[in-house]
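Q: I have 145 residues here and want to know how they pack in 3D. Can you give me a structure?
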Amino acid sequence: MKQPALLSVLAATAFAFAAGAALAQSAGSVQSLRGADVTDAVPVEPVFHQEEQRFERAYRQQPPLIPHTIEKYQIDVKANECLACHEWSNSAGRGAPTLSMTHYVDRDGLQSETVSARRWFCNQCHVPQVNAPELVENTFKPFGQ
C-alpha cells in the first residue's frame, strides 16, 4: 500500500519539475503586444507642463490627461498628493487647474468642501500623458474628425 503512494508522489514531483522547466524555457520567448521582448525598455517621452504639447481630448467628457509624471506620488487611502496642487483651496497659488466641482459631490448628490471618496483615486480616471508607441494598430478617430 505504501509503494503506490510513493510512486504517485514521485510521478507528481517529476511532472511538476518538467512543467516548471518548460515554463522557464518558454518565458524567454514572450513577446509584448508591440513585438518587443517583455524585458526590453519601451522609450517614452514624458510631457511636463508644456501647454503647447498637451493632447486634445478625443471625446466629450474624457477625463483630462495628466501632463506630468505621477510616478512617485502617494495616492492611497491615507494621502493624495494630487490635492496639494489641484484642490480648489491650493490651485490658485500653485498655478494648477482646479478640480471640477463634480469631484466634491458625494454619491447622494451633496456638495462638500472636501473631495468625495468616490473621486479620491485620481489615477482611476486620469492617466499621465506620454508619447508612447501604440500597443496595437489604432483606428480611433476623435469626435468631429
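Q: Anything worth noting?
A: Helices lie at 2-27, 83-86, 88-94. The mean pLDDT is 78.
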